Amino acid sequence: RICVITLAEAHPLLQNGKTITSINYQISANCSRLQNKVSGKSKRGAQFLTELAPLCRITSSDGEEYTIYSCIRGRLIEVNENILSNPAILQEKPLTEGYIAVVLPKFEESKSVTQGLLTQEEYEEVLLKRRNSSS
């Protein structure tokens, strides 16, 4: 029932041969995802995220900045601090060690969240349509 947030394989950072220069979990002057302190079985102290809550900002070598959003409502359980010192793992291993964060949706919402997700086949169809419409 946990959700691991990663970069989609179609994300521009993974497609265009860009190099990631920095990752910043400081969302605003008063909010840093690194300050998230979770304790206990009920995950006390975890920051609550909405679908549109920014998780981090990633800057590439060409100066472009990408804001990565939660895309899911729930409690922020963990952010991957390893990518701060080694941003390349975001590109080298985006689905494993290069994850961005772990979010725990509310129990009563977890079923509707997973039902709203695309299957791998549906995702590939969306990507194919995008490629065809942009060319």
Got a strand count?
9
Round the Cα radius of gyration to an integer and report it: 16 Å
SSE ordering: EHEEEEEEEHHEHH
Q: What would you call the structural class?
A: alpha+beta
Strand percentage lies at 25-35%
CATH topology: OB fold (Dihydrolipoamide Acetyltransferase, E2P)
CATH class: Mainly Beta
Mean of pLDDT: 86
Distance between the termini: 38 Å
Protein name: Protein Abitram
GO biological process, one term: regulation of actin filament polymerization
GO molecular function, one term: actin monomer binding
Keywords: Cell projection, Nucleus
Provide structural commentary:
- With 135 residues, the chain is α+β, with helices and mostly antiparallel strands.
- It has one domain: OB fold (Dihydrolipoamide Acetyltransferase, E2P), CATH 2.40.50.100.
- Helix content is 27%, strand content 27%.
- The chain is built from 5 helices and 9 strands.
- The chain has helices spanning 12-15, 82-85, 88-92, 107-115, 120-134, and strands spanning 3-5, 20-24, 26-28, 31-32, 48-49, 54-60, 65-69, 74-79, 101-104.
- The strands form 3 sheets. A 4-stranded antiparallel sheet has the order 1-9-8-5, with no helix packed on it. Strands 2-6-7 form a 3-stranded antiparallel sheet. The chain has a two-stranded antiparallel ribbon with strand order 3-4.
- β3 (26-28) and β4 (31-32) form a beta hairpin.
- The relative contact order is 0.21.
- The model has no long low-confidence stretch (mean pLDDT 86).
- Its main location: other.
- Belongs to the ABITRAM family.
- InterPro entries: Abitram, GCV_H/Fam206, Single_hybrid_motif.
